[in-house]
Write a structure and sequence with these properties.
The protein is α+β, with helices and mostly antiparallel strands. The protein is 47% helix and 15% strand. Helix 8 runs antiparallel to helix 9.
């Protein structure tokens, strides 16, 4: 999609990356066409079989090292996948959370035994990943987490509840943010993996999935409450093999999560511009095409300019990240500013559709609904501004 006519930076134009982008686009056309996405929305979930298919076709573990069972790519491959999903309206599939948020905790911080045990199964689709941070009483404030993982014999007993967990209905590999030493605050936080599969067709004892939450947008992605009631977890499921490392691990990985959100925001807004251009060129009012009105031209000129600036900034952040130089404040800038622009421009584009923009059968309506959560998850935009302000 080149609706912005803005060239990608050199690092995204290498032949291998371009060929991969084409292949991902074709895969989405085959396995996640619009009619199937509509079924996801009706079912409030993506079929479990799609995860297995993605594993067979090499879309899981894109940036995971080959020796750990992955595809041996880098963050550019994750960007390609996120962009193609956004451009084609298939971004309700929570594959990027699995690939670019959950799996990195294991290959960056896991012990060699943990990598060998989990990474190949994450790459094959046997395991579907989720990360359980948010609680009913603790959203962006990760230091306020109440879930505990208490040492018991050779393992841990996990108690607590989580909410708004993406992939929550299907995930069988859940990284749980828990306090292993509540008295130590952030220093007492650990990341512990709960594998939920128990006996065939059952969850492990004490683990329960709440309802699949009914959302304003992103309806095709399952989002759940999770409950841990004396869930017994092996001692070697603490990521990194030692307690108290969780908060540092989270802080080191959150910049990539926030960059992911910015990448997804630009891609979704680009799709909005493409579909809006098609609409205003066909729709007539007062005897002429909507595109022929000066107001339409001015509004779309503003939209294209804002999205081009957003894309250039996000590309800059991708370049920094590939060099290991993306800091938390810059990632926060990208997350908050791009998602604000996403919401603002999609709202303008919906307005150009008139009453049809409010109808669910038009893509712009879904894009409008989906955009709203972007300013909330990954840390609210207000929290992003606090993080940026600390650098002043």
């Amino acid at each position: 999609m080149n609706v912005l006519n803005s060239p990608d930076p050199d690092f995204m134009r290498e032949e291998e990356i371009s060929l991969f982008s084409d292949s991902v686009g074709k895969w989405i056309d085959e396995h996640a066409p619009p009619e199937k996405v509509q079924q996801w929305i009706a079912d409030s979930s993506v079929p479990r079989a799609l995860w297995s298919q993605a594993g067979v076709d090499g879309l899981l573990g894109l940036s995971m090292p080959e020796e750990d069972g992955g595809m041996g790519g880098d963050y550019r491959h994750e960007v390609v996948l996120m962009r193609q999903l956004g451009w084609k309206g298939a971004d309700h599939f929570g594959i990027s959370l699995h690939n670019a948020i959950v799996a990195p905790y294991i290959w960056h911080y896991g012990t060699e035994e943990q990598k060998a045990r989990w990474l190949p199964r994450l790459a094959s689709g046997e395991l579907v990943g989720a990360i359980a941070m948010t609680e009913p009483g603790a959203g962006s404030d990760l230091q306020g987490v109440k879930t505990t993982a208490v040492k018991s014999g050779n393992g841990y007993v996990v108690n607590g509840s989580k909410t708004f967990i993406t992939n929550g209905q299907l995930a069988n590999f859940i990284i749980v943010v828990a306090k292993t030493d509540p008295a130590e605050g952030a220093k007492g936080t650990s990341l512990i993996v709960v594998e939920t599969d128990g006996a065939p067709g059952e969850n492990v004892e004490g683990f329960e999935r709440g309802r699949n939450l009914h959302k304003i947008g992103m309806e095709g992605n399952d989002t759940s409450e999770l409950f841990f009631n004396d869930v017994k977890v092996p001692g070697d499921n603490i990521i990194g093999g030692a307690e108290g490392q969780g908060f540092v691990q989270l802080m080191q990985q959150l910049p990539q999560e926030r960059l992911n959100i910015a990448v997804q925001g630009v891609a979704a807004a680009e799709r909005g511009l493409e579909t809006t251009l098609a609409y205003v060129k066909e729709r007539k009012a007062f005897g002429k095409r909507v595109i022929d009105f000066q107001n339409t031209q001015f509004k779309l000129a503003e939209v294209k300019t804002k999205l081009t600036v957003a894309k250039v900034f996000v590309d800059h952040c991708i370049g920094l990240h590939l060099q290991g130089k993306l800091d938390a404040a810059t990632a926060s800038m990208a997350k908050y500013w791009v998602t604000d622009i996403q919401g603002e421009t999609i709202d303008e584009m919906l307005q150009l559709h008139g009453g049809y923009g409010y109808m669910n059968e038009y893509a712009i309506a879904q894009l409008y609904k989906d955009a709203r959560v972007q300013r909330i998850y990954g840390g609210t935009n207000e929290i992003m501004k606090l993080l940026i302000a600390r650098t002043l």
